[in-house]
Amino acid sequence: MTQICQKxxxxxxxxxxxxxYHTCHEGLKLGLIGYAKNLYDGSVEVVACGDQAKVEALCxxxxxxxxxxxxxxxxxxxxxxxxxxxxFKIL
Length: 91
Description:
By secondary structure, the chain is an alpha+beta fold. The chain is built from 2 helices and 5 strands.
């Protein structure tokens, strides 16, 4: 099992619609660690760390998001796990 960290920025109608809550739920369900937080430009930043296949599964889910959201674009980039996360948090 390859462990990776991925930073994802999701743009669209993703604030005020429970996006972070649902992302946190999906991350925990997949056994990942990391966070979801709102950015000032109206997008949501997600950092997910764990098994590569599970991180990729969360990234796939983020392309749709919850039914309440409208995702316009998703950008991904690898990142270092510089912070030790415990669980999946909403920031």
